[in-house]
Amino acid sequence: MNVYEESFRYDTSKSEQEMDVRKGPWTEEEDSVLKAYVNIHGEGRWNSVARLSGLRRTGKSCRLRWLNYMRPEIKRGNISLEEQLLILQLHSRWGNRWSKIAQHLPGRTDNEIKNYWRTRVQKQAKQLQCDVNSKQFKDAMRYVWIPRLVERIRASSQPTSAQPSTESESVHVGPSLLPESSGTSSDSQLSSVTDLTDFYDPQSVSNYPNNVRNGSGFENVAAEAWGRSDDGWLGGGGGESSMETVWNEENIWFLQQQLRDEV
DNA sequence: AACATCCGCAACCGCTTTCAG
DNA sequence: CCTGAAAGCGGTTGCGGATGT
Questions:
Q1: Same domain for A130 and A222
Q2: Could you say which of A13, A45, A70 is where a domain stops?
Q3: Which nucleotides in chain B lie less than 7 Å from some protein C-beta?
Q4: SS3 for A215?
Q5: Nearest protein residue to B9's C1' (by CA)?
Q6: What is the residue-level pLDDT of chain A in tens, covering all 263 positions?
Q7: In the 32-91 stretch of chain A, whose C-beta falls under 7 Å of nucleic acid strand C?
Q8: Domain boundary among A38, A70, A102
Q9: Where are the beta strands (DSSP E) in A43-89?
């Protein structure tokens, strides 16, 4: 029996409640025990994992730790432009269905996306002084932020031919073509956030629907809030992206089809 | 330097859904 | 079908580091 198996002694005599369950941050030792156990026995049956591994944790806690932190494919750190775009668009489609959204962002967990949304997106809504679920905010996303993000992605993938799109508001990026390259290295993939002001181009407002363009001037409000922001949410980093995938028209067309097919 | 405040994120909680017996 | 256990999910909390005063 090796050192790991030694720690997996079966103990059926105590229930979770009786076992003085540990809470709070996981230690390195607990992580290694969990990792070793899952490597041997595989994922699933988390209550058994908790019981048999010797960890004084609940099954829920073990599952969460593994899924959100210890899985080998987990990506951590900055959310790339493409991922930001996907989050925005998928959220507009599905709402707070974090796990569903996460399925389309390989290596990202629902928890991470949820945290991202709460810390970044809701912050923007707050600066716009509107609710994150309000039509106002959704319009800002749809007609200002998403198109600009799409343009940014295009620009960074096609630096020599990047032109402001006149169709950007109609672009819907599907989940299935998420660039694998964005996850090849947790260090190299980057959100490359910059000042949000460079994300807003007043000229492109003319491309938005009249009700947005002429309504309450909301795009200006949105842009203003964007400009006020000091954390660079959704900023593009001026072409410093390490994105390797070509975000071309063909891909975007394909993504549109993917999304339509999913409805 | 010390304290206060803000922010991001890991982890927990409680509810819902799924599944096996 | 019914029921209980397990798994999954979304909301919330609280800690620790960063930043501001």
A1: yes
A2: A70
A3: 7-14
A4: coil
A5: A115
A6: 443 333 333 333 344 444 578 888 898 888 888 888 888 888 888 888 887 888 888 888 888 888 888 888 888 777 888 888 888 888 878 888 888 888 888 888 888 888 888 888 777 777 777 777 777 777 777 788 788 888 888 887 775 543 443 333 333 444 333 333 333 333 333 333 333 333 333 333 344 444 444 434 455 555 554 444 434 444 433 333 333 233 334 444 444 454 455 44
A7: 44-48, 59-60, 63-64
A8: A70
A9: none
